[in-house]
Amino acid sequence: MGFFVTLFLCLYARTLLQDPDNWWQVKVGLDLLASRTIPTVDTYSHTFAGQPWIAKEWLAQVILGAGYSIFGWSGVAFITVTAVAAAMFLLAWSLSASLKPTIAIAVTLAITIAVGPVYNARPLIFSFPIIVLWTALLFQAARETRSPPFWALSLILLWANLHATFTFGFVIAAFAGLDCLSRVWFRQPKLIAKWVLFGLLCVLVAMINPYGFKAILATFTVASGNEAVSFIDEWMPFNARSDVGAEVALLIVVAAILISGLRVRWTYAAFFVFTLHLFLSYSRFQYLWLLLVPVVLAVDVAVQFPVLSRQKWLMEPRERLEKALSAYAGRISAVLVACWVATAVVFISYSTVAPAAKNFVSGALAYARQQGLTGNVFNAYDFGGSLIFHGIKTYIDGRTDQLFLGGFTQATIDMGTSAGKPILEAQLERYDIRWALLTVKDNRIPFFQELPGWRQVYDDEFSVIYVKKD
């Protein structure tokens, strides 16, 4: 699974660099590597410069930055591919402990495709293998009514420095602990005490990062719904009309449960409902339901439907292909590892993948440098990442989890409405804007054409530039 997922994603590697945030995530990593200091205030925008800002996903950004500094965008893309492949390797490993190999592989392949829209060269991708392993380990311990593996705290330590979703690790641990409690109740107080201790240590270990408790608090800023959340596509609720693939996956699972008559423990049902709530509430969290529910339910499926179970398969006579695979398992594995290494070398050496041209705006930036455009820029949201990467302080960018709040994002959105011209003029004056870099379909372009003292000096298929005449 690891090798074939790697091969598949290498063929579609360009899709991994389509997000505007790819640019600034890599740039932050490069700056961290160069300065060896952890930022505490914003230095990338001119609108919020000096305001508190933390690189809470610093380790992932360093990894992305290192990949870029050594291998360019091919390195960034292959690091992303490797994170996805590792997650699917662990998912197949977890499922194959209960389900027959063909079922485990088929389910993993289906999930690999279903989760595809989330694959991107951003810190989130590094949480995938950790969350799969974390969930498998804790629910297995609960199922076997034993204490959680305390060595797994190293996973939450790594997770807390890679991506803000590490707080989901607390929730998963709580569900697993609740499942263990439902099995033994208070007949084994020492076991329950170990689970409680494990939960407390999760929080303490997660604070072993450059920002301590601030990293935990920062994760709730977006979760509680700041003003920018409602304007960002990935934070929008599930829409069955536009997200057909996710709807199909959801309906297939619900129909399978109804038809099969699968019965699950109430703790598993609660976990199912919790992850389904995230699935429906935020588009970006659909992967949690898709990845984790199969891990939790696989054992019950195998027990209630023996024909799908690994145990039943083990008792069947081996076919000729299975005998061959078994006899040469070590050699086959070695060949696959060698093929994976060869794929990495070939991809990094010859791939020409790069971020999407629509977010790069290379022509516009080249013009700005050639003409010596200076001063504060008013930029479209999607161009913020590229501006940061190229050393130009932004008006707004993708760091809305901590910045561009207090009415700022709302005002920026309102500029694009029919009554937005006065708001635009006020912001241009307040932030001493000297030039503007906008998408060709920006709703604010008509206002710039009407503003006295402003003129268009550049346009291409992706962007336009306006400058103040003086």
What this model shows, in words?
The chain is mainly alpha-helical and 470 residues long. The protein contains 22 helices and four strands. Strands 1-2-4-3 form a four-stranded mixed β-sheet. A hairpin with a 3-residue loop joins strand 3 (454-459) and strand 4. The longest helix has 23 residues, at 73-95. The termini are far apart. The mean pLDDT is 92.
Any descriptors?
470 residues; four-stranded mixed beta sheet; 4 strands; mainly alpha
Q: How many β-strand runs?
A: 4
Q: What class, by secondary structure content?
A: mainly alpha
Strands across the major sheet, in which order? 1-2-4-3
| Proportion of helical residues | 55-70%
How large is the share of residues in beta strands? under 5%
Discrete helix count: 22
Q: Could you report the average pLDDT, rounded to the nearest whole number?
A: 92
Gyration radius (Cα, Å) is 25 Å
Termini gap: 60 Å
What is the 3D shape? globular
Largest sheet: 4 strands, mixed
The run of helices and strands is: HHHHHHHHHHHHHHHHHHEHHHEHEE
In summary, what is this structure?
The chain is 60% helix and 5% strand. It is mostly helical and 470 residues long. The longest helix is centred in the first third of the chain and has 23 residues, at 73-95.
What are the SSEs and their pairings?
Layout: H1 2-11, H2 21-35, H3 58-71, H4 73-95, H5 101-114, H6 127-143, H7 153-162, H8 167-184, H9 189-206, H10 213-223, H11 244-260, H12 266-281, H13 286-304, H14 310-315, H15 320-327, H16 329-350, H17 357-360, H18 362-371, E1 376-379, H19 384-389, H20 408-414, H21 421-430, E2 433-439, H22 445-450, E3 454-459, E4 463-468
Parallel strand pairs: 1-2
Antiparallel strand pairs: 2-4, 3-4
Helix pairs in contact: 1-4, 1-16, 2-3, 3-4, 4-5, 4-6, 6-8, 6-13, 7-9, 8-9, 8-12, 12-13
